[in-house]
Amino acid sequence: MAAWMLVRTKTFYSQCIFFLFAASMLIPFQAIMLPLINIMGRFKMLHPAGLIFMYIGFGSSLSIILYHGFIKGIPRALEEAAIIDGCNVFQVFWKIVFPLLQPTTVTVSILNVMWIWNDFLLPQLVINKPQWHTIPLRMFYFFGQYSKKWNLALAGLVISMIPIVVFYLGAQQYIIKGVTEGSIKS
Hints:
Layout: H1 2-8, H2 12-24, H3 29-42, H4 48-71, H5 76-84, H6 89-100, H7 102-118, H8 121-126, H9 135-140, H10 150-183
């Protein structure tokens, strides 16, 4: 909804906000990780809820940019017709615009789920209790200084891939449907 508002409100401030989202993607995580962990530690957010909060913050830039690009292609006449029919702003978004965003939503979901599922560095910095470790952190413990448990590591890697492959295969039909609907002109 943020991307929709940034596209549909043609003000200097909305363009500045969009530019800030785009510019935030240029800063590498390694440049901000130590100050981020310091700040999150002061707020007592070094646990899974804090990790989720950070993932939402880091993932929002790419999501907003992808939605922004797609929403620009949606004709404004659809929204104006819905307003004439009596819809308010929220109804226009949820009943008219959001159903058109299904392929983009699936794409954003796939990108974010794969990034979060495979992330190692941020959970390594944030999570300090073993019971909260993510799968990539657990895979790290199969390799020590004096021993490498290849049989367990490879079995664990295959098992850790299964949920993400199932998610991707389930979401793939929506991407194909969105591409074919966009390519057929009637």
